[in-house]
Design goal:
Layout (H helix, E strand, L loop, with lengths): L2 H11 L4 H11 L8 H13 L3 E3 L10 E3 L1 H12 L11 H11 L5 H23 L8 H30 L18 H6 L1
Antiparallel strand pairs: 1-2
Helix pairs in contact: 1-4, 2-3, 6-7
């Protein structure tokens, strides 16, 4: 989710100033995506520049509220109506890490997989504990965020199981040295013979 659209969605509820937006954003996401106030105001400035929000006169306390414009409502409606593409999401650092571990000399790929599995299991247990901490109707938005995180952690564990199974059968091709000669290759079964 972009901060931009998150703030637009919050402003659709009514006028808010920066600190209110930050608190409402974190409450809506169950504090799973903490924002610093600088991100909020930088995003508000861009939204105002693009005509999607407008700033209102400061209150007596010095806070400047913002409100969504018609153009902002149209942009928000388009965002809600458009599916999120896998290509729009950030790269998966874990899959890149494992791919590089396979081709980096001296890296124990099984250890990398096991370390990640342990960390993901701890995360899954914590998320599950949080999920059942409250069942108030007003907690549904952040419970849905937690559900998504639980499903992602479960999928990651399944994928790590698959990686481990694939490593058992993995036989890399001999690498070539700069002179074109085959180099030394580590095979999964060599460690078992040691």
């Amino acid at each position: 989710m972009s901060i931009r659209h998150g703030l637009l969605a919050l402003l659709e509820r009514g006028q808010m100033y920066g600190y209110q937006l930050r608190a409402a954003f974190e409450e809506s996401t169950g504090s799973t995506w903490p924002l610093n106030i600088g991100q909020v105001y930088t995003t508000l400035n861009r939204l105002e520049r693009d005509g999607l929000v407008r700033s209102l006169p400061e209150h007596e306390g010095g806070q400047r509220p913002y409100e969504i414009t018609d153009a902002g409502r149209a942009d928000l409606a388009l965002w809600f109506a458009t599916p999120i593409s896998r290509a729009d999401r950030p790269r998966d650092e874990l899959s890149i890490k494992l791919a590089l571990a396979l081709t980096t000399p001296g890296v124990d790929v099984r250890s990398v997989v096991q370390t990640q599995r342990s960390a993901t299991m701890r995360t899954l247990q914590e998320l599950t504990r949080l999920k059942f901490a409250s069942d108030r109707p007003e907690d549904l938005p952040w419970r849905l965020v937690l559900d998504a995180m639980v499903f992602q952690a479960e999928a990651e564990i399944r994928w790590l199981d698959h990686c481990e199974t694939s490593l058992v059968r993995y036989r890399p091709a001999p690498p070539t040295s700069p002179a074109g000669r085959p180099g030394t290759v580590w095979h999964a079964d060599e460690e078992a013979r040691r």
